[in-house]
Amino acid sequence: MTSAKLQQASAEILKRYPQNQKRSALLPLLFLAQEERGYLSPESLEEIAHLLEMRPTDVWETASFYTMFHFRPMGRCHIEVCHNLSCTLLGAESLLDVLKGRLQIREGETTPDGRFSLGTAECLAACDGAPVVQVNGYHYGPLNRSQLEELLEGFARGELPERYRYQPWAGPPSRGPEPVNTFERILHQHLLDPSYDGRIEAYLERGGYQALPKAVREYRPSEIIEMVKRSGLRGRGGAGFPTGVKWGFVPKDPGIPKYLLCNADEGEPGTFKDRELLERDPHQVLEGIIIASYAIGSETSYIYLRGEFLEAVAILERALQEAYAHGFLGKKILGSDFNLDVYLHRGAGAYICGEETALIESLEGKRGEPRIRPPFPAVKGLYQCPTVVNNVETLCNIPHIIVRGPKWFASMGTPKSTGTRVFSVSGHVRRPGNYELPLNATLRQLIYEHAGGILDDRRIKAIIPGGSSAPTLTADHLDVGLDFESLAAAGSMGGSGAVIVLDETTCMVKVGEVINRFYHHESCGQCTQCREGTAWLHKILKRIEDGRGQMADLEVLKDVCRNMKGQTICVLSDSAAMPTESYMHYFREEFEAHIQQGRCPFRA
Amino acid sequence: MSEETPKLVTLTVDGRPVQVAPGTMIIQAGEQLGIEIPYYCYHPGLPIEGVCRMCLVEVEKAPKLLIACATPVTEGMVVHTQTPHVEEARRGVLEFYLLNHPLDCPICDKGGECPLQDYTLRYGPGASRTLEDKIHRDKHRVIGPHIVFDAERCILCTRCVRFCRDIVGTGELGVGYRADRAEIILFPGKELDNAYSGNVIDLCPVGALTSKPYRFTSRPWDLVKQVESTCPACSRGCSIVLDVRHLREGGEEVLRVRPRHNPEVNGYWMCDEGRFDAYPRRGQTALKGPLVRRGEAQVPVTWDEAISILVERLRGILDQHGPQAIGGLLSTWLTTEELYATGSFLRQVIETPHLDYRVSPVQTQERDEAEDHLLRRTDKSPNTQTAKLMNLGPGPEGLGTRAMLEAATTGSLKALLLFEVDPWEEPTLGEELEKFMDRIDLLAIWAVRESPVTSRAHLVFPALGYAEKEGTIINFGGRIQRLRRAIDSKEKIVPVGEVLRQVAVGLGRPVIPLTPGEIWQRLAEEHPAFNGIQYEAIGSLGVPIHDDR
């Protein structure tokens, strides 16, 4: 990229961040430079360092943290096969074999003619389209071998065909009959209408942006916080922390800038609910962001969007423009004294940036390394200012709470897990997809009534109820409630709301290998236990799966898991250890069989 | 200062109560009690990172183990550092570290003084349980003029990164990539070449960052002496330790120079010049014995002969031209005691007003300056402050450095005594000496190494190197610190004070005191700044000079 062009672009990008926080523009500029040249050369990195008044080392260490940046030329068509759990269950490995055969290259390589690069990707948040392939940022799926070969012909011609593109859809009709809809859908109410296009007109027509005027005209910020507290709403990102309580931690001092960050870095394997809410009903998210910002006194808000959500970029940018044009954003919103600017900020390929303090670091243009707490973000977050980080789905609930009241919200679900929740169901089910259910529903209702039951009517072996970090449950747990407490009592957790269903043909050692490959790939690497432990778990499990395990490995696995838990800055380490322990707890005989037979008994 | 002192916090660590200031971390409270809490990434001079997870301790009422380095004490806190839970966690961390550590201790510089070795022995697992291949990385990458990096040994504590970023401010080092691919990185084509780079060697808790000159030269247990001294590389006077080794052929050498914590002077750090250059240059005298010029040649003589020759020459000049024909330049590389001896010799024995210590331009300024925000000063000699306090410049009728050199060139100055003035340090001075070196009646020089001047002087007296002598120096801020003899000189060297005492006797003039005790007594009498300071009371961290300005 020419200096002049980059300089011009940077001036525009820098307007999104405080003047003394130029480093925040790092990831956007790296993306720009990479788009221009296909990869980042040391010269580009130095130029960006110069533009942002950074040390070249700091640019390099940050850039190298994120997997979406490349430091050598890549093929014109970059194909990445998702090999995370849901995609592996449904044939990702076979797709990868097709590509290796056809392109005659291995993962991480580029064809000699420079046309193709081949790689693997971690969960692309499109698990209802598994197996999914990412091509130059666009997602295709579900694909079988012949569909992939057909696509490959288009790719070879330099095309990115529309056919087989992944579409987020609340229960894709292609996979069987519509679910029995016995519950009112709150967040998905617009999505049931296939003609709903997510534009502001459509949102307004269906009663959108009624909560915002009510909020800014009828309530003081403290009253909004009180309402959200009374609603019992808990964070939908993973930890389930009460949202109103989190907001209440923000100091009221009007002299300090405060930030509301929308966590749209959806990456917990198996989870694809936020992506749909963002892409199909962006104004519902925005209305939530605006009201939340009003409540905590934030005048600047960022949507930290997962880097791989390429198609969401245009959708959200358009939605932001529409909201500004209608006076829902900007100065003196709806005639009040409330000002707010919302900016989109893209991540660049790092699961850990979904952790709120890593997200903040990343937004500051740094490596996504979680911070030591305290201080908590509510006191010292972005730019050392009070900051609230809320998940997309959490924020989507806010307008509804304002319009219909906390009492109404609390009447749904259970006393401690109120409201509804969007569950992403994937794996061996007939109708994978996102289903919004009140939190007093059960796993059985979700899996059998909504997700259509198990493929080919096979039996359930395991249910991972809260994303891959959640310890597994079994078919015995089908009547466990989906609320936070019930899942915890059953020995697992609500997590991100992703329910991955594994049928009786699944090899649990393989599942362990796949999920630990993911944590090994995604550990930020700062804490010893996580950096070394995730890799060790992955290597041991792979060895057992490959038939080279020893009985002593099982003892080592148990000890490694124990030494990884509760000892690190964030919970990524626990997220690898806890499910691994649960697989060994429920399916120890499968591990032993691998070792005794010297092979995977589930492989033909 | 007059503000009320904050109330102390009381806690117990392993059942022992301790009182510390609010904001103190558990690790420091433990230290105060002498309780070892092992750590790698923590360093009292660096910002807290909290990533090695080695210092986990149990705190009552806390649901999880907490890191002692980043957990502030609270009133009534109950800390346990030796519970089974803590011990298991430590064993776990060490097992994780050793998974990919090359265990090449037998060829590692750090072996024998390595916290990874030490803690593994004390807290670690007895055997390895891993069957996986170790990750291979760069084993010896030269990353700067002084430093070699072994990426396999690195445990990613990031002390080196934080030092360059937060202390020096140059930030050459970073952590690149992530998970177990993470590595210490430099920007492509860049080097670790800041003026303080050597500190990363001390900071590195393993053998990942090693010293180019020291690499593979010794084992820690061969370093038989650790001598606390003071760095002579500039007017800062950093507190240092000299690591001394016996030589196979007999004698000793200083093999390493390391900083020693002194909050009043240098904190935890020192610069590369002091660490790598000062001692090779002036630590040991390179001259074997006195030399006398006979015609064009210089011939070795005994100390007694050299002293008699000096007496005779000085007497001749004194008789013929009077004391005004003799001048002396005192290098501020001399110790306080040597400055006293040489200054007194010129003033009271020779009775000349021509003497000066201002050899380098920076010494003519009121005060030298900071060369950067950290430690280095612009005056590259250690003891200018003493010469100033003793008024070792020319008297009212005396000539200063430049005037003396001019007088020597025009012929009015017949003899010049150079006390450790080193033309290598001051090249312009060397040029000026050239002008009259062959014409002056007497050029006598005390030196630690050869130079164009020593090779042509009438008399050359070897001086003691910085590692070979005892004494004191006073830094730019007026702190008096000790030099300690670390090694004996290879040849017999008569200290300059003793030479001058014998010369004074030979000339039949008053005798100058010799012992430090006597000198400090005289200093206290003669100069108000030295009032009340006793030589014996100058501890390892030095004492401030009495300042009545």
What report would you give on this structure?
- The complex is a heterodimer of chains A (604) and B (549).
- Chain A is an alpha/beta fold and 604 residues long.
- Chain A folds into 5 domains: 3-63, Arc Repressor Mutant, subunit A (Orthogonal Bundle), CATH 1.10.10; 77-156, Glutaredoxin (3-Layer(aba) Sandwich), CATH 3.40.30.10; 200-410, 3-Layer(aba) Sandwich (Rossmann fold); 420-503, Roll (Ubiquitin-like (UB roll)); 508-597, de novo design (two linked rop proteins), CATH 1.20.1440.
- Chain A is 42% helix and 11% strand.
- Chain A is built from 24 helices and 13 strands.
- In chain A, strands 10-9-13-11-12 form a 5-stranded mixed beta sheet.
- Chain B is elongated.
- Chain B folds into 3 domains: 9-82, Ubiquitin-like (UB roll), CATH 3.10.20.740; 94-211, no CATH class; 291-475 and 487-540, Rossmann fold, CATH 3.40.50.740.
- The interface between A and B is large, with 45 and 49 residues.
SS class of chain B: alpha+beta
- Shape by Cα distribution of chain A: globular
Helix percentage range of chain A:
40-55%
CATH second-level architecture of the largest domain in chain B = 3-Layer(aba) Sandwich
**CATH class bucket of the largest domain in chain B:** Alpha Beta
Number of strands of chain A: 13
* Structural category of chain A: alpha/beta
Strand content of chain B: 15-25%
Write down how many β-strands of chain B occur, each being a DSSP E stretch of 2 or more residues.
23
| Through-space gap between termini of chain A | 51 Å
Spatial strand arrangement across the major sheet of chain A: 10-9-13-11-12
Radius of gyration of chain A: 23 Å
CATH fold-level assignment of the largest domain in chain A: Rossmann fold
Number of helices of chain B: 13
- Overall tally of domains of chain A: 5
Short description:
The complex is a heterodimer of chains A (604) and B (549). With 604 residues, chain A is of the alpha/beta class.
